[in-house]
Amino acid sequence: MSRPEARKLGFWMATALVVGNIIGSGVYMLPASLAPYGRSSLVGWLFTATGALLLAGVFAALSRAFPRDGGPYVYTRAAFGQLPAFVVAWGYWVSVWVGNAAIATGAVSYTSAFAPWVAREPGASAMVTIAVVWLLTLVNCRGVRAAGWVQAVTTVLKLLPLLAVAAVGAFFVRTENLASFAAAPLTLDGTTAAATLALWALLGFESATVPADKVEDPGRTIPRATMLGTVVSALVCTLACCMVLLVVPGSQLAASNAPFADAARLLWGEGSARLVAVFAAISAYGALNGWILLQGELPFAMARDGVFPRAFGRESARRTPVFALVTTSVLVTLLILANFHGTMARVFTFMILLATSANLVAYLVCSLALLVLMRRGGLGEARRGTPGLAVAGALGALYSLWAIAGAGKEAVAWGAALLVAGLPVYAMTTKASGRR
């Protein structure tokens, strides 16, 4: 008996996946990190937002030409072949589940603001973090529509405090804050540092391309959802962060553990600060839900292509890659447990930097893939608007190189080692499947 056709993500759920994966816990902490850079932080935001939009255009064009599961893996394979595609996808997959451990940890940190026992009881934060990971893994195992509804609801909720701060904060900008902000020197080093920090808050614009087979009319829906989701996220994050920088005094902001809560306290009073912590936790949980969807879909696509262990290509009766989801969540759980040992904190923080570097490699290669496929005529009807696509591909590649350089030599070297570490997996898998 044939399995029933799985219900798929429509345009609004695909857009919610993009917005929800971009806006997680990072944006809520970003103003404190940007505070020392003054005007340079604003220019850095503009660079990062522009780079994100260029790269979103790259992924929109590629998804129109190749509306299939796998996103970066599919595009790299079409342009450069199987091995480079595996290396890029391997690095991207590792970056997803390492990032999921960070998102889950951040979500529970915000939860402790309104549930103090989480931070007070020994081991409680680790257990709650792991419980959240597995709860959302089960949601994704139930099917893409269940995950889509969670994503849609949490995306609406997470936008509320950011929009409120951006709108109301404009009427409460302090003259002394504005003067201090304007007086800070505008430097190239400060702009680069601010842009690198802001990038973490805008990663994820490619999210809708990975589960393409689970999206209705993917050749049309994914490009539109990718562009709209990126535009909305970039505007909301930029405006909200800039308002916090202008509302909260710089000296207070630089030492803040909850910048948006501090802004809410100044705007609406003490009670609102706790409410913002609730929304920040919801934001992180929503992002975690969307990234867990991706952590299963990418190895599923590679396994179907014969370059990843065959078990990852199994589907449940609901047409979800349960084995890939569960196995990857086991890795996330192990990383969370390691992070709760004090000696592992620095290692875990560095792994986040590695994850960001792996994302940037995928963005760079996909930008180059767009240019190569355009030259070969491999984009089909998606080639319409060729001059604009060529510019987006070239500038997207340059931006990715600039951001990789901003990550530092050590992170780049270890990131390269991370990519090379996947080669034995590729060799063993392709040998087992009878491929060279």
In short:
The chain is built from 19 helices and no strands.
Structure, described:
- The chain is an all-alpha fold and 436 residues long.
- Helix content is 76%, strand content 0%.
- Helix 3 (39-65) runs antiparallel to helix 11 (218-247) and helix 5 (82-111) packs antiparallel against helix 14.
- The two termini are 36 Å apart.
- 55% of the residues are buried.
- The model has no long low-confidence stretch (mean pLDDT 81).
Percentage of residues in helical conformation = over 70%
Look at the structure and give the mean pLDDT. 81
Termini distance? Answer: 36 Å
User: Major sheet, described briefly?
Assistant: none
Low-confidence residue ranges: none
Helix-strand sequence: HHHHHHHHHHHHHHHHHHH
Task: Specify the number of helices.
Answer: 19
Q: How many strands appear in the DSSP assignment? A: 0
Shape: globular
Structural class of the secondary elements?
Answer: mainly alpha
Write down the Rg. 21 Å
β-sheet strand percentage: under 5%
List the helices and strands and how they pair.
Blueprint: H1 11-22, H2 26-34, H3 39-65, H4 72-80, H5 82-111, H6 117-120, H7 124-141, H8 144-169, H9 175-183, H10 188-202, H11 218-247, H12 250-254, H13 259-268, H14 270-304, H15 322-339, H16 345-376, H17 386-406, H18 409-420, H19 423-432
Helix pairs in contact: 1-8, 1-11, 1-14, 2-10, 2-11, 3-10, 3-11, 3-16, 3-17, 4-5, 4-16, 5-7, 5-14, 5-15, 5-16, 5-18, 7-8, 7-14, 7-15, 8-11, 8-13, 8-14, 13-14, 14-15, 16-17, 16-18
